[in-house]
Protein 1
Amino acid sequence: MISDKKHVQQLASLLLKKGITDIVISPGSRNAPMINTFTGIAEFHCLNIVDERSAAYIAFGLALSIQKPVVLVCSSGTATLNYVPAVAEAFYQNIPLIVLTADRPDYWIDQAESQCIRQENIYQNFTKKGISLPLGESEKELWFSARQVNECLNLATSGKPAPVHINIPFEEPLHKLVQEALPEVKDIEIAEIKAILTEQELSKLVDSFNRSSKILILAGQLNPPTELNNIMATLVDKTGAVVVCEHLSNLSYSSFCTGIDLLMTGIMDENIESFQPDLLISFGGQFVSKSLKQFLRKHKPAQHWHLSMSNDHFDTFQSLTKVINIEAADFFNALTETIHQHDHSYLELWKNKETKVNQLRDSFVENTEFCDLKVFDRIGKHIPENSVIHLGNSSPVRYALIHQSVKNALYFGNRGTAGIDGCLSTAVGYTSASQKLNTVILGDLSFFYDSNALWNKYIGTNLRIIVIHNGGGNIFGMIKGPTDSPAFTEHFFAENTYKAEVLAKAFGLDYFKAENEGELGQALEEFYSPDQKHVALLEVFTDAETNCKVFRELFKMIKA
Ligand SMILES: Cc1ncc(C[n+]2csc(CCOP(=O)(O)OP(=O)(O)O)c2C)c(N)n1
């Protein structure tokens, strides 16, 4: 059985034609025609999440996992506004979400009607396109609506993917069901095109590349790139270009440089000009490292090329000279075929420094007291190879990037907007469709903020949650500024004495805790044991002041 509402029938038909079948529904009345239609068709895979903020982050995590668009369905009113944080995160990470909001007919808006707000274009800053479907079901209105839905669904995945919004007004009755097949609707396809460089442009780029002796390539946050890793490795071997990446770039090769924050601290004062690039090439999303940005803003390259499928003019380092509208893999492939061998002295300079810094880090971590820095080292050594790791904001992602990455692991983090409000939900959504072991590591505030992520039936047994309980927002003690304020403890650190244990028990998770190194080692053994067959939460208690002291000492030591 499906709803009798024809616009919804058409929409469902087009979603199926375009292979979009994963739907995250939040309950409501106005969205009944969508709920009845999607759940009435076996091909759709429907989840139900009550809290719309969490639902949208779960949909986002699911879309990351299956690498396909995911549909969100909610009622009208504030339900729709709760989607905004995840829609923004998806927008800045180029993930397609199809957001379907139910609405009342426009003649009831602002007329003291229940659960009614101005819903048209509410996500306009974070979507590629937003439409409101017509209410009437005449032939012309149905044709118009099908054309607009086609356009929205095509835009979500073409070029630079992004969320789209379809607002659908419904008149009562909302629950009328019919025993009918979905209507045949024209699927307007979008032709696949591949951007390539003209011969003239390629030869100009190759010429510039060959004339540069210090080439730095920055790979920002990337969803697991399949062929790019090997292409970049070949390029580095041939040219001695320096590839700088973070765990979230999901690239890995012995000649790439990672651990950027510490490495930058290591080069900040000493012989810094020799590290300054002539040519900088960047692609992918954001970098976490602030010191990398500071270094490049101060020591600007003569040329900066940014590779972007949507001609983004990202002038992050105030030195942008060229935007190249091409896939990174295609660009580096084309380049590698034609460029000369370069000498490897620039690469050796960076790699030698990285080796030294890493040695200093390892002996420092071994000798330091129990603190977050040490906890992240131990966690990294226990997470099994081939895992998926989700890093929370803000100090978890920073600590994790200081340490070596886990072998063959995939890394994710909500770095599009760096919110603390959906890190757990994103991980829950990702894990629900993942065959691998997934670990999410979050601070205590982020965990409590998003604990509704646990309020559903879809938590995979392959999920491990680690809460670093340092008594509040410890990041504010680590960065310059907040500790000077008299409002520090109450309004920046936001001291937190609640424990995750009670919530873990409420949601039926196995619970582990650690308050010192011995307990942590023991807990991690059990937490990652093959005998641990159920979803589990490990709460690690550390002292906020010790964490800040050790963190500062590490950077001071590297600098010295
Ligand atoms: C939605 C949202 N609100 C506020 C912030 C600002 N913020 C950044 S980090 C942070 C504290 C995080 O605390 P916790 O999760 O305990 O991690 P810790 O700082 O201890 O590592 C806050 C409030 C944010 N990033 N996102």
Protein 2
Amino acid sequence: MARALVWACWFVAASAVLAQEAPLDGQSGRNLLLENFRPKPTLKVDQHLLARAKFPVVDVHTHFREKFRGTADELDSWVQLMDRNRIAVCVSLDGQWGELVEEHASLLWTKHKDRFAIFANIDWRGGGKQDDPASWDCLRPDFGHRTARDLARAKERGACGVKIFKGFGLSYKNADGSLLAIDDPRWDEIWRACGELGLPVLIHVGDPAAFFLPIDETNERWEELHRRPDWSFYGPQFPKRGELLAAFNRVLARHAKTTFISAHFASNAEDLAEVGRWLEQYPNLYVDIASRIAELGRQPFTARRFFLKYQDRILFGTDGPWPEERIRLYWRFLETEDEYFPYSEKPFPPQGLWNIYGLNLPNEVLRKVYHENALRLIPGVREKFTRAFAALP
Ligand SMILES: [Zn+2]
């Protein structure tokens, strides 16, 4: 009896060691973990690895505070990357508010005033505590009015637009714990002021469709959500994605004189027919392509038709600064008809397990997407662009 027990224990221990030593790498008949899957296409097709854009570019969606925390020297080398790639101007969406706008401007404008434009943000929290919604300034009377005044000052400090982060709709709360509604009339004065001040509003509403679905074997972004479960908005504690998008559409309808650039292809690149209907219904709506070449590039026929039809309504953006390899994939996506290439420099596709196809856009559409639409919409960018372009190598 005792001997049988010893044997059983030995067997359990030995299997545990074996299990530890044999990674699920798909080799020698072993199973394969999804995160270890690194398929190398055997496909042989033409490749055009573009080192720079065909026409000068305004990148309307960059984060020079959130993602770039570098020194002035590092900013110099970023500007060299811009030169190499023909990016004339980057719009930093991280301008913040009040005197902080000047702080951000001093990083970007001390040496490179023509290369960067700045969008201001809204100080919803004020002096309130992060985890205590009742203490947030946006719940106090007259917040819209005070914010409108702040935005006028931000404009005097050089900001040329306003960026709204996705926490608006997804996480900022009322005192009772309910989420702030995107179309709450309390914010109307803010949107109206943006229109009157001529400040376009670049707004991130919601997130990819897959982030609102269960994290299970049917989720097309399972691998990403498994890595980052905090990106999931599935569950009763979160709003429905369709409701967020609908609430934003009501704001578009109420504020026809305010220009809105809806980030990440209006957060609905999974359904271009719907985005097309919105563009037709709301003439004050524009979209940027930031961080959505994965989505657009897996539907190249639909996406190309969309770009041709709505060529005046699409702006170039990357959500960077990114490594140069990723920036260059944007040129390849928009300009070539390359097939089945990665949309990211990361070895494991970070936004869905697939490759993309180029759109081969005609020159007149490329010019509009790369800069003409941005020059028309964002005040002051034309002047920066003209000077920056003249100095581009
Ligand atoms: Zn962004």
Protein 3
Amino acid sequence: MSKTTFDYDVAIIGYGPTGVMTANYLGSFGIKTLVLERDKDVYFRARAVTVDGTTLRCMQALGLDEEAKKDMDVTTALRWKTYKGFEFLRWSPADDSPWGHIDSNMIFQPNLERTLRAGVDRYTKNVDIKFGYAFSSLTQDPESVTVKAVSDTGADVEYRVKYVVGADGGSSAVRGGLGIANEGKTKPRTWIVIDSKVKKTWPERELLTFWSDPVRPVVDIPLPGEHHRWEIPLGDDEKKEDFDSPEAVWRLLGAMDVTPDQVDIEHFAFYNHHIRYAQRWRDGRVVLIGDAAHLMPPWAGQGMQSGIRDAANVAWKLRYILQNGVSDRLLDSYQPERQPHVVKVTASSVALGNLIETKAGLPTVMRNFMLPIISKSAGFKKGLKVKPDYDGGFFGVAPTKKVAVGKMVPQPNVTDSVGKESKLDSFLGSDFCVVGINIDPRAVMTDAQQAAWALYAPRYLTILAKGSTATSADQIVDSDGVLVPWFTQYGVKTAVLRPDKYVAATNNTSLDMARVWK
Ligand SMILES: Cc1cc2nc3c(=O)[nH]c(=O)nc-3n(C[C@H](O)[C@H](O)[C@H](O)COP(=O)(O)OP(=O)(O)OC[C@H]3O[C@@H](n4cnc5c(N)ncnc54)[C@H](O)[C@@H]3O)c2cc1C
């Protein structure tokens, strides 16, 4: 007889960076969660090498940013050099990030994943993690999903859950089981990625360097904890087999004057880069996140970070569906929000990759004269970053450049009524917040609007201009002088902020909630 009770509210398949972030969010919301992970330990290969300020902001929401930063190095500088030694670009990542965290940090992915996993250990009451369990299939009906898996001892297990998050990576069995195509292309060029442990350092090792060369370009990456990485494309006539030995790897390193005195090779692997998107990211009660939903080349350092943003996006939606009785149509807003953003960061990654791979190197005029000038401009630094803004989804009106709706609110320091100064998000927490700029937001909302948003149980906060004094717990002062000007430039007096810090609605567009999100 089929079950009528639920074993868990949510099953997360895969415990890589996107799965573990989802487990942290759901754990912190008190949602009964199962994690099925095929492997026994963190994947040993360091793949992602960098995180930005918005990703750290997601970790901050989980109380894990400071712990994670202990294993990170702030990126010193990025430079572009020819093999002959001519440096035609040097760029220090901006430290004036609006997100409350430095915008470019080098990471060692296995260590970051360990920190995130330790974070989930805080939620043993409501999160069960089963290592060595490979997801095998699922079936769903209007009320539930039945998930089947096989343990590493060969035991078949089955769980009935309300929702499934497929975070099982690029070869996703969840995606495959649902018959969802992974559309796009795989680039023909093969890259060798060499990871090492440094024994004896060398001058300027700490600089992330693109070596431009028509024959053998190299991406040269310093990683925290005395790790160092080289990513090198194979030529048109070269095969993986030509390089698949320590001797061949040493020949590649030797050409860059790197010797066995300086590093131990930890491992090397071959990759072809993909540009692929799952045809749909939601199928009934199942959502795909991270590499299961999209794959991009690594050059913009955004693959894992995009997965973390997916986790942040899906987790609060599941929370309001499961705990506040919001319709699960809310999950329909996930792909329209996340996919256009992923497409933009993929395009920037592809453009950077084309520059690195270009066989002739950069045109001399561009390289020697234009890039050094352009790279010093503020616009260049900003242009390298894709803004986190959303183009559509869970919003009162369609986001445009001219409205605050769809934009991520900056994170300056603010001061509360007892004079304590902290980053904005520590006051906003993980709830919906309705904020009024120098005014009680309820004074700007109709009763009907307040009744509609009550479904999301928002907190009401007043943000006072710099120089004011907060006199009650629902007031904060914009002590850095950032928030009031930010809202004012869009003509906003009152705004609804989502848990992921996006502006959902404003008084000068509409504070009504669209019927579909109720
Ligand atoms: C060379 C390289 C450099 C990169 N550099 C960057 C960078 O600088 N910045 C960045 O943001 N990203 C970077 N990336 C991309 C980044 O590593 C990935 O996007 C990220 O690891 C994806 O995370 P995920 O959790 O979605 O998937 P994964 O990390 O693949 O994790 C999936 C998990 O699911 C488990 N699993 C799989 N199948 C099953 C199953 N059937 N049952 C149970 N469990 C299962 C796996 O064991 C694994 O633990 C890089 C990638 C490469 C290859």
Protein 4
Amino acid sequence: MAWDFSTEPEFEEHLEWMRGFVRAEIWPIETIDSEIGQAELDRIYAPLQERVKERGLWAAHLPPELGGQGFGQVKLGLMNEILGTSIYAPNAFGCQAPDSGNSEIIALAGTPEQKERWLYPLLAGELKSAFSMTEPETPGSDPTQLRTRAVRDGDGYVLTGHKWYTSNGSIADFLVVMAVTDADEKPHRRASMFIVPVDAPGVNIVRDVPNMEHPGQHFGMLGGHTEILYEGVRLGPDALLGEEGDGFLIAQHRLVPGRIHHCMRWLGVARRAFDMLCERSLYRPVRGGLLRDKQTVQNWIADSAAQMQAARLMTLHAAWKIDTYGSSAARMDVSLIKFFGAQVLHDVVDRALQAHGGLGYSTDMPLEQLYRYARHARFVDGADEVHRESVARQILKAYEAPEDEIPTEYVPARREAARLKFASLLDTVAVDG
Ligand SMILES: Cc1cc2nc3c(=O)[nH]c(=O)nc-3n(C[C@H](O)[C@H](O)[C@H](O)COP(=O)(O)OP(=O)(O)OC[C@H]3O[C@@H](n4cnc5c(N)ncnc54)[C@H](O)[C@@H]3O)c2cc1C
């Protein structure tokens, strides 16, 4: 029997250190982020990143030969639960999305030259990157419909298209772009990935799209979601990542473990909101007692605890499955946690905000910001509907429609079969009686 829910003491020490570090050094950044620019943010990060490196926790998502720790998904999941408590934490640990996913795919599919030019500086924190797939004109939930084209030109390509929500695109040094290279191929072989320097002629950074998370105009800061026009960008053959047509294959490698990290980060956010909910319930006097005395609030606390526990166990189990059997074996588990985790995040933050009333709705508490953040979880990383559809399809493969459309559990038919099965015994009983 190998089931085990314990954490190795040495690793628990790391987690304990991370909890203290993130709370003391990172959470304060949130309160001044609107007053500082990217250069000041980078200055704040520099000594923090050094401390993380000294502790041996830098870029932990990567294998040891690339300077990571080779921790595997369960440990990374536990780390991400702590990093999720603040949007500023992952960058201090060298595992900021999309840099983390991009470093994984360049490590996987990059040539030695691409690794030298892009991967190692990215890992050292000298470069920033972005992942440019979603387009305003086509559904991000079905990237086989992408319109951005990379047309062969001599031994290179010419890239033309329109993207948005390229996170960190306005501070990136290079962009990993998904573009169609052969529109006549099978849907999942149509697109390829390219590494595009942001200063290449024809890369037009239009804006950071104001959104629920950052409703005001906001440009050139970590966490911006950038609109980009690729206007006849000339790329050499060295820009292609992997083989032509490998775009979806490479993206898949990035997505499955990435979802474990996201779900654990969402649990970190949910836990933070849950702590605020519990604290509030202990002191807020309402008619007839404190909030903690009201059954509705007790239900919120109990239901939130149960949902978070369920999501946590599901996510860590999916992580264990990836570590034990590989990403493909865990695809359905990862789809399950994607939509379940997104709902848990939303529900817990919503209850905590409700318990704080006007204070929760105000910017004097982080809850309104967490609420806006939580909303995107339900459609990014594959819309919840798409994951549910995929889960249902996979589950239904194990079932068959009954002959004559009579349900397998139809009681009259089963009763008839039972009478036949036990006929001799029933006769005996009748005679004995
Ligand atoms: C904060 C944030 C960061 C992001 N970062 C990046 C990034 O770095 N790089 C990048 O390329 N993209 C990024 N995105 C974009 C994101 O991946 C897309 O928004 C997402 O894939 C959904 O695509 P869409 O917005 O085009 O919605 P659509 O694909 O148009 O879907 C809209 C809605 O249609 C419904 N729907 C879709 N398919 C189905 C179906 N099969 N069955 C039933 N209903 C369905 C769902 O309700 C869905 O929400 C980011 C988005 C956000 C909000």
